[in-house]
Amino acid sequence: MSDERDEQRIVVGATGASGLPLLVQCLRIIREADGFRSCLIMSHGARTTLAWETGLGVDEVRALADEWYEPEEIGAGPASGSYRTAGMIVVPCSMKTLAGIHSGYAETLLLRAADVTIKEQRPLVLCARESPLSPIHLRNMQELSMIPGVRICPPMLTFYGNASTIEDMTYDVAARLLMPFGIEAPRYHRWNGLGE
Ligand SMILES: Cc1cc2nc3c(=O)[nH]c(=O)nc-3n(C[C@H](O)[C@H](O)[C@H](O)COP(=O)(O)O)c2cc1C
After folding, report:
1. So which residues are the signal peptide here (predicted)?
2. Residue 51 domain flag
């Protein structure tokens, strides 16, 4: 039986940008990864897009996580640097939440957890999604990317992996988002150079 002190806890934030299937896939990969557990915080915006994009209910997604909190629970564990985590991923990350993280406006538990992740110098992966990107979005991303540990990872498709379905592409993007935490998604094939 695993003990949470022996496992690496990843805080998983989800916001109201398009890309909720990526959240679901990330939670599934973390669930299958030995030695990792997830701590989910969904914004209210994410609940709206979740229904549109996946047809899943909030409870079904929460069931994929090891623990979850409401965004209003500002006194919950992820609000403190003393809470053990391996870092945080925000998937998908809206431009509103990106701006909140950029400015240190830690109004919700999700924003506070990201603020804590930065101050504790832990990995913070932001799957920022909008199109087209305005100068404000690009400035926020550029400045956040300069902070050690922060990675801006928009959900970009790759075609060289020969994924044939949207599910395969979603899996590949999710797998890459989780690499900074040392998770090897079992169905992801790393590039080993062009074959003969
Ligand atoms: C169907 C739908 C798709 C959306 N897609 C995006 C998006 O891709 N990027 C974005 O920044 N906002 C998007 N939004 C707007 C955000 O949901 C909205 O700005 C929200 O206030 C974000 O709040 P949150 O970051 O607290 O979840 C979308 C909204 C809806 C209803």
Report:
1. none
2. yes
As a whole number of Å, the CA-based R_g of the chain is: 16
CB of 105 closer than 6 angstroms to any ligand 1 atom: no
Backbone angles phi, psi at 87, to 5 degrees: 130, -165
Q: Which residue has the tokens 């913070």?
A: 124
Whole-angstrom distance, CA of residue 130 vs CA of residue 148: 23
d(CA 143, CA 5): 34
List, for residues 33-48, the tens digit of each pLDDT value: 999 999 999 999 999 9
How many domains does one find in the chain? 1
Structure-block tokens of residue 90: 């925000």
Q: Quote the ligand 1 centre to 151 CA distance (angstroms).
A: 20
- 195 is a domain residue: no
pLDDT of 57-87, one tens digit each?
999 999 999 999 999 999 999 999 999 999 9
* Domain membership of residue 81 as a residue range: 4-181
Whole-number Å distance between alpha carbons of 23 and 20: 5
DSSP letter at 133 equals P
DSSP state of 79: G
CATH assignment at residue 127: 3.40.50.1950
What's the gap in Å between 184 CA and the centre of ligand 1?
Answer: 29
